[in-house]
Amino acid sequence: MNHTDRISPAKQANTKLDFYETFNDDFFNSEFIELVITGVPTDVEGQPIWESMDDLLARPYSHGLIVAISTISQVIRTIEIHLCHNDVKVPRLNIRFEAKITDVFAENNSLVNPIAWIHIGHGIKEYDYKIIDPVDDWDDDEIEQIPGLSNGNENTDYISCESISNAISSMRGQVLFVGLPLCYGSQVGDFLTQNEKILFIHGPYSFSVNSGSEFYDCDKSTTLPENSLIAWTEWVGVFEKMGRKSLLKFAKNSKK
Description:
alpha/beta; 7 helices
């Protein structure tokens, strides 16, 4: 494999984030923080088949989901370690499994955004579109495609990424990390990255990905035959690098 062809959302991310400026008491203003997984398969009664990690281990999903969960756990741990000279307490990370996106996100300012969100449903490139007025009168109108996500695990009942973004904007708190291991996750991620409340997004696929392969590394056109998960674990190294820079900057400023 030519490693230069592998898509790496972590290496493409903005790594200028300063831990001591970003992760303050307002960022972690709760007793616990949540990693929410939406698009969870349901039982005959319409309830998520997992309530805990024990359930996930007993009824595993596509290879890579547990690695993705571990990656986010390690990222939170990395943040906590590198805030060692700050009085900010990083709350306990809990995991929550939900069938639908709308079970989590709604335009309600009494709700709190999860610290991290992974959707394991489906994505489409064009759910809707909107017309953007031109800057100058003589220019033509522009059309912006709006991608969509399945509200649940099945390849049906799609909702607009614009409505999801609006819900995130209305809710309290920021979303540190969004994982989009699904078809056209790249296009969905490009749209959601316009939301200032979302800090990092993992959406490598700009194409339709086969079921069971949605966590694997890829190039621009397909998943790689090695079935590797390097792109997920790279996020840990990126956050460790940002943490070291932030800690060094804090130490230098403290001596002034």
